[in-house]
Amino acid sequence: MKRILVALTAGSLFGAGLAWSGMVDPLRVRNFLDLFGDWDPTLAFVMIGAIFPMAVAWRLRARFQKPFADAHFDLPGTTRLNRPLALGAILFGIGWGIGGLCPGPAIAGLALAPLKTTIFAAAMLAGMLAQRLSSR
Amino acid sequence: MAAFPNAQPLEGFTGGVLIGIAAAIMLLGLGRIAGVSGLAARATGIADSGGPRDVAIAFVLGLPLGAGLLNLATGGIATHFPDSASTLVIAGLLVGFGTRLGSGCTSGHGVCGLSRLSRRSILATALFMASGFVTVALLRLAGLA
Predict the structure, then answer these.
(1) Whether the predicted pLDDT of B131 surpasses 80
(2) Which residue of A19, A59, B2, B50 is 20 to 30 Å from B29, comparing CA positions?
(3) For chain B, how many structural domains are there in total?
(4) What is the pTM of this model?
């Protein structure tokens, strides 16, 4: 129960941060990616703001035997640079450029523009499922 | 006149700090990366590994909850979505497929991975940023932006 409340709190803070920063507006994201248009650097400030607390958290993590609301750490350990990583990132970037939406803002946006984000999110889940099926 | 009239650097930075605190709670509280693509796949059952499902579901439900509450509190957050459903579908398919193939998105690689100086995340973030810039430039050339 405790871990569910902690996750819900983290998700809500994350969603509030996306909304407050303007990242739930696909036009703002699109304008960040539009170097030859009305370039909007806001997204860069969001990234910088988010990286500070996380950089501190990674340092604190070394002092934790286990997380405060769960049994153990479950973190990615691989460091290998490979083709799926590169190809996946490129395909994601194309979709991000076309729609101005990545997974976080799309899901948070369900509360603000339910119709459009439902269409996007359904297609996104279909894409995730297709990736899983194709990787078997 | 400001150089970038539409920019919201202060809201961007403070909103970013909130996002970073949320990701820090996931890391230190639950031992997990706050990567939205991975958590969404886990919550829906598309991924059957990657930590407990109840945590993923709670985090994913929190996203619209937090955004919706902030929207109520501030009295309306402007959003401008692509008009056409086909644009949303094509973009969604690419984002879904790409983030799973590449093991992460803006949150997992961009926020959590970069702050850890993960080389995989540095490469992924550089590539999806570059790919996004090129895509929008090409759409502009084609008269679609």
Answers:
(1) yes
(2) A19
(3) 1
(4) 0.96
